[in-house]
């Protein structure tokens, strides 16, 4: 079985982005073929395969964490609204920076984590309401955290923090 998840307000692609939730061998074959087609189609995009890999990671997180109690400790599910917001956020990421790790959070939100080295990390979290919570550690004493609304671009403080991390 597969679900077609519509991409709402996402500049990455129009139409539907299929999420294969089946477990049979046929379902696995379909999932692998979809991944190959997506990679071929995205090779002409600026970020190409990098974005395809990040989207694949997001899909896996969504599939694994879209039901109540996905962690066995009462975690809230990641909703389609949060999934769509994550796709939108991926499209807004500066192409010059390394791509983040995608981390499910027990409150139903999705985290994006950039780790450069020990004590040099930046994390943002989204929960489906166009608000970014962020925190960064830049060395032993420099810290930043906050909350910002966003729509069509990342907040300036988030962009500056990402640039700072990878300077």
Write the layout of secondary structure elements.
Blueprint: E1 2-6, E2 16-20, H1 25-42, H2 48-64, H3 80-92, E3 101-104, E4 110-117, E5 120-126, E6 131-138, E7 142-149, H4 156-165
Antiparallel strand pairs: 1-2, 3-4, 4-5, 5-6, 6-7
Helix pairs in contact: 1-2, 2-3
- Please tell me what the overall shape is: globular
Number of domains: 1
Strand order of the largest sheet: 3-4-5-6-7
Tally of strands:
7
Distance separating the two termini: 45 Å
Determine the structural class based on helices, strands and strand pairing.
alpha+beta
Q: Tell me the strand percentage band.
A: 25-35%
Mean pLDDT: 82
Helix content: 25-40%
Most strands sheet: 5 strands, antiparallel
How many distinct helices?
A: 4
Residue ranges: pLDDT <50 for 5 or more in a row? Answer: 1-18
Specify Rg, calculated over alpha carbons: 16 Å
Oligomer: single chain
Secondary-structure element sequence? EEHHHEEEEEH
Descriptive notes:
With 167 residues, the protein is α+β, with helices and mostly antiparallel strands. The chain is 35% helix and 27% strand. Strands 3-4-5-6-7 form a five-stranded antiparallel β-sheet. It has a two-stranded antiparallel sheet with strand order 1-2. The chain is globular and about 50 Å long.
């Amino acid at each position: 079985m597969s679900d077609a998840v519509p991409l709402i307000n996402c500049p990455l692609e129009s139409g539907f982005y299929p999420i294969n939730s089946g477990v049979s061998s046929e379902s696995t074959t379909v999932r692998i073929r979809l991944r190959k087609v997506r990679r071929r189609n995205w090779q002409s995009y600026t970020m190409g395969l990098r974005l395809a890999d990040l989207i694949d990671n997001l899909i896996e997180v969504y599939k694994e964490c879209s039901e109540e109690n996905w962690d066995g400790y009462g975690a809230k599910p990641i909703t389609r609204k949060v999934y769509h917001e994550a796709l939108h956020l991926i499209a807004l990421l500066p192409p010059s920076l390394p791509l983040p790790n995608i981390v499910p959070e027990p409150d139903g939100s999705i985290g994006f984590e950039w780790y450069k080295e020990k004590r040099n990390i930046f994390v943002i979290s989204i929960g489906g309401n166009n608000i970014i919570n962020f925190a960064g550690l830049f060395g032993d004493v420099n810290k930043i955290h906050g909350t910002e609304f966003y729509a069509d671009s990342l907040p300036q403080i988030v962009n500056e923090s990402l640039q700072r991390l990878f300077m």
